[in-house]
Amino acid sequence: MNELKEIPKTVYGPVNSWRLGRSLGIDVLAVDSICSFECVYCQLGKINRVQTSREVFVPTSRILSDFKESEWQTAEAITFSGSGEPTLALNLGEVIRGIKAIADQPIVVLTNSSLLLNAEVRKELLAADRIFCKLDAWTEEAFQKIDRPAVGIELESIVKGIEMLNNEFEGRLAVQTMILKRPTDSDLDSYVEILNRITPAEVQLYLPSRPIPDQYVVSSRGNVAAFSGDHRRLNTISESQFLSVAKKIQRLSGIDVVTSQQNI
Fold first, then answer.
1. What pTM was estimated for this model as a whole?
2. Does an H or E element contain 111, and which?
């Protein structure tokens, strides 16, 4: 493990979130960008470590120390996201419990859903109040192109994992989906069929609005409005098309849909 002095702060913000208000970020990875996906729209830039194995990246004591030194009292929510996929951290559950012993704000975990077939991961997540599960595709081909997962991860394992977690979780589970192009009616039927399997409390739809750095940038963990370094942006559908898609998904599924543009 890296020397603790070399690890960036594991707590950042609070930042303004359209979903959560003032959100304090917890990064249980911190030593690098570490994920089981290399999503084409990732705001972190390059993922330096692609893996599916779990380990302790930062000691729990260091994370809790950073938390106590932060402005946690001013936050409306405490969100686990950071430098990649938080469920890769073997001490995720321990950190959640440690923070809940200090603070009363709701604990939110953002996950790409890749490790949810692991019963121990699901058990750790049950301590959270809200979980946002990524689901960016409804076909295997699209999943591989958009999320670019580590070898061996397939769409069905993502869907099954979210379904199992939602059956066990007593809090509020939402499905998050990034819309990159206008889906066909057939696409929407396939997507809604998956949603009906999962039965989330909410669907959150996004357009890729943030700059994508060419290399990993630790400051991009937060809600960064602008980035001045080398970066790229993705072309996507118009806002009016996006809202039309959101309304159609809500009508077909009967599930509440919220968007990064506005509630519908």
1. 0.90
2. strand 107-111
